[in-house]
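Take a look at the protein record below and tell me what you see:
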Amino acid sequence: MSKVNLGLIQTHATDDRTDNLRRTVALVRDAAKRGANIVCLQELFLTPYFCKREDTALFDLAEPVPGDTTKQFGDLARELGIVIIASLFEKRAPGLYHNTAAILDADGAFLGKYRKMHIPEDPGFNEKFYFTPGDLGYRVWQTKFAKIGVLICWDQWYPEAARLTAMQGAEILFYPTAIGWLKSEKAELGQAQHGAWETVQRGHAVANGCYVAAVNRVGIEEESEFWGQSFVANPYGEIVSKASATDEDVMIVPCDLKAVEDFRRIWPFFRDRRIDTYQGITQRWNDE
């Protein structure tokens, strides 16, 4: 199908996991009622962003993927006839955990999962303590409504990740996200940081001739103020819809997948790639 409606669920999270799940399910139902075909949840939607400190007890928040939560959202996807992208804290084995997105098709089938590849380590974002880097590669899935790729948060800064996903035919790149300001930095760097985040993803849309959907959370959690402003960019990098900076939001964004084909015909970046010159991209740094 050429036309597809994206549903982006931007919300807050509390320490009450049951309440977070209940509210998220209600928001998914609302999105489906309003016509969403593919619904994407924010990064680690079941909990507050717990990576603000290193605490081994927090590994208890993890769960198998697939598991109980993917079963519940698979049932919901089948009931509503929609695709759901659910970002979860995956327990793979004792001492081995991933930041993982599960993809549920409109018939409830578990299509697969993507494990976050790029793991940050910054003040207030101590993810290397919790997450093993992904080992499933960059993946796409043919869902009922579109061929989609899913990446997660810190992955959104890397053009290589977007390119390798788009090269498998992704028409839409989804980025479940948890990003915000540290209170101590907002006054000086807040506008620039948000502008950089938005700009780099708009660039991925242009360079790969596809839609990009970034789904962030909102709310203040200790020293972190999540900046919301979830958005969808079209293949020209134009922001076609953006959520509030402070409020919960359920965005319904119509996309015409024919625009992907049309854009790639007009600007054939994939045709003109000089793959014979890119060997150096796999080096950490060019010291010569």
